[in-house]
Design goal:
This protein is an alpha+beta fold. The chain is built from four helices and four strands. Helix 1 packs across helix 3.
């Protein structure tokens, strides 16, 4: 796996990932983990969850996530739209939530699974 430098506004992380999109997802996961509780709230629809995340992203993230294999603050970094990466993260979390429910696994919140 390659090493990627990922930036979104003032936030940055260095990760190993299979590609730039996966690296951008890592940053999104890091930022959105405090909001993973919404996937444990049965009263919220997927649309409500996505709207909550979109508002949070609008308030805390830049419009694009920039990914480079060369370093930070690179003009040649690949741009990834924050809304598109957020949607991928939301779809992943929704899928995990459905999987755990349908498998009848012992109740453990997605927030608990992500800490560590």
């Amino acid at each position: 796996m390659a090493k990627y430098y990922v930036q979104c506004g003032p936030r940055s992380v260095v990760v190993e990932a299979i590609d730039g999109e996966a690296a951008a997802m890592h940053l999104m996961d890091m930022v959105m983990q405090p909001h993973a509780w919404i996937y444990d709230d049965a009263d919220l629809s997927d649309g409500d969850r996505h709207a909550h995340l979109a508002i949070e992203a609008l308030l805390t993230l830049a419009p694009e996530i920039r990914v480079s294999e060369q370093g930070v603050n690179r003009t040649d970094a690949s741009p990834h739209g924050t809304p598109e990466i957020l949607l991928l993260w939301h779809q992943t979390m929704s899928g995990l939530s459905r999987l755990f429910r349908s498998a009848g696994l012992a109740p453990k919140t997605l927030r608990e699974l992500s800490v560590g």
